[in-house]
Design a protein that fits this description.
about 280 residues; alpha/beta; Rossmann fold; 2 domains; 6-stranded parallel sheet; 3-stranded parallel sheet; 10 helices; 9 strands; globular; binds NADP nicotinamide-adenine-dinucleotide phosphate
């Protein structure tokens, strides 16, 4: 019998997108310009193609224009940087999303840094990361941003709580921990070299799973009453947390799918409209 309450990311994301669509319509009425997100895809990796299409379709539904740039897999770092620099300078584009991974031959960091910070609605640049770290205005990486919204929606105040973030990638684990720290949680990062993951997770009032290993975190390691956010998405629609056993002990838990996942695109759309509003002087 599951005891934890579900954190419904699908419902929250729907509400955020509805509000975002209203803001996009209002912006268009007041300025004559619809917000526009440029998506850039290098190569034709099937998963990336699907993600980009999904993002474009969600943009359309929210009244956000999308401009898609498809580059061949042979594109060099210099060519990609030139494309992103041009989009950064184009006043009709308000947000830029560079789909990754992009292929081993591309210097990913150089590509990200070609995105103007004011258009970095996916929160991938150094400037965005630094602004987030210092609590200054800017755009956050979308999945960690979505995780924080879920916590707020379910009245979980991280202040003073022990948060354990499993995973330290630049787009997910690391920024999730920084955002929790900014909200006064005591944060521990775990990763592939962590000696005793179970012991660390057992201390956590808030667990963020961001690994990509199916059911790595088991219910027996969840502290009774903990809040569990599972960003993992593995084959077979399975998260990084063993949902059934974790739900026996957690107070709040995100399902997979339908928890953290939908929040990522909602945050992207919301940040795109915010970027457009700022650039249009609203
Ligand atoms: P990633 O770049 O591969 O990073 C994985 C992290 O997990 C690394 O920090 C790695 O440690 C750590 N790790 C690997 N094995 C571990 C283990 N046995 N114990 C503890 N830590 C371990 O992955 P990512 O891009 O952050 O994505 C993580 C998961 O989130 C994936 O399932 C991905 O599909 C999902 N995701 C979901 C969304 C969404 O919208 N919901 C968005 C992005 C990603 P090291 O640093 O030591 O290698």
């Amino acid at each position: 019998m599951s005891q934890a309450k579900l954190m419904d990311g699908t419902a929250l994301a729907r509400r955020i997108v509805e509000d975002t669509a209203k803001q996009a319509a209002d912006l268009k009425e007041r300025t004559g310009t619809a917000p526009c997100l440029a998506t850039v895809l290098v190569g034709a990796d099937p998963a990336s193609v699907t993600y980009v299409r999904m993002k474009q379709s969600r943009c359309r539904k929210a009244g956000i224009e999308s401009r898609h740039v498809e580059l061949p897999a042979t594109t060099t770092t210099a060519e990609l940087v030139a494309t992103l620099t041009a989009l950064s300078a184009d006043p009709s584009v308000h947000g830029i999303l560079l789909q990754h991974p992009m292929g081993e031959h591309i210097d990913e960091r150089a590509a990200f840094e070609a995105i103007a910070p004011e258009k970095d609605v996916d929160g991938v640049t150094f400037a965005s990361f630094a602004a987030m770290s210092f609590g200054l205005p800017g755009f956050v990486s979308c999945t960690p941003g979505g995780i924080m919204r879920l916590l707020d929606e379910y009245d979980v105040d991280p202040s003073g709580k022990r948060a354990v973030v499993v995973g330290r990638s630049a787009i997910l684990g690391k920024p999730a921990g920084m955002l929790l720290l900014a909200r006064d949680a005591t944060v521990t990062y775990c990763h592939s070299r962590t000696r005793d993951l179970s012991a660390a997770v057992r201390e956590a009032d808030i667990v963020v799973a961001a690994v990509g290993r199916p059911r790595l975190i088991r219910g027996e390691d969840i502290k009774p009453g903990a809040v569990v956010l599972d960003a993992g998405y593995n084959a077979g629609n399975v998260g990084d947390v063993d949902f059934e056993s974790a739900a026996e002990r957690a107070s709040l838990i995100t399902p997979v799918p339908g928890g953290v996942g939908p929040m990522t695109i909602a945050t992207l759309l919301e940040q795109t409209v915010t970027a457009a509003a700022r650039q249009l002087g609203m």
